[in-house]
Amino acid sequence: MNTSEPVPSAESRLRAAPPHALVSTAADLLAELVGAQDVTLLLADYSLTLLHPVTHLPYTADPLPARNGPAGTAFTTQTPTIETLSDPAADLVHLPITVRGDRMGVLSVRLPAGRTDPPLVLRLAEFATALGHEVSTADRDTDLYVQARRTRRLTLAAEMQWQLLPGRGCARDEYVIGAHLEPAYTVGGDNFDWSTGADHLTLTVTDGMGQGIDASLLTNLAVGALRNARRAGIGLADQASLADQALYAQYGGRTYASTLLLRFELDTGTVHAVDAGSPQLYRLREDRIERIELDAQLPLGMFEETHYEEQTFGVEPGDRLIAVSRGVHGIRSASGDLFGEHALRQVLSATRETPPHETARAVVAGLIEHFGSKDLTADAAVVCLDWRGRERSTP
Questions:
Q1: Cα–Cα distance measured from residue 347 to residue 59, given in angstroms and rounded to the nearest whole number
Q2: Chain segment 313-326, per-residue pLDDT in tens
């Protein structure tokens, strides 16, 4: 080998790997670079309850819990966790894999004992992030990682909905978003979407009428129309109007999509909002929880050429916003008791100090406990946003 030639970086070697061969490439790289004895990629399933090892399909290894155990601790706390093994000659390091705030899973690396010093763990954490980016890119070209996330088969409606989602989290200096959707494997009409720019964040929560494939087709049209209008640089109220026209043209008012549209100005914390239906919005400021009351306007597609108007409110650094679909605030237990605002406030109070991802999951967990079954009869979407704001320069 010509020693004058540059040595390819680990990241470039990952990028050069075939999409289906990222795990074996990562294992070879870490064996070469740090003496890793074994490498396992664990991806979170759609309900965020299990971490599935990526192996040859069908699975040849059992999943691990996503809420406890060393790997689960790394996933939920988003910090590297070192597991002491019965074999005194080795340690197991579990590294969270998160891409721009979207928690994907865990990379577990078995190392010779005594090698897990902080600088090495930091290098491994950076490697895990690089691997996560490559897995996200590889999803365009292979089904391997999508299949590995599944505990069971998705319905066709759920397949369409998950392909429509931007992810389950997003993080920037100004905010952190965590979102959750259930029933994960049979969801039909609920959706959340976001888009960030240099000076703003647009966030929507949509609840398509109906169930199954009909609801999924409706929501796909609604979200596609909203994105089309947003990407044309059109204002929030006009985005709602154009999506409303698209749905009415297709369905003639027979079915519609309830949608909450929000646009955050990153410099000021001013939020422009259009409430077109049933999703509800709550704000936690210090120890106070309040529902943000917006003028209820017609859902998208209910009537022809509906006119929408924007409202504004403000967020301050430290504020937390929670948006929930009707499947959360309107669900009833087997005895007919409404989950309602009181129960929702209790969950939000109990999770005030937890990250947005865990708060969104906890709301759905409370909903499932109230309903008495994991098999929810209505879709439930929860989006939690922690607002940090942007430091304003002083003259």
A1: 36
A2: 999 999 999 999 98
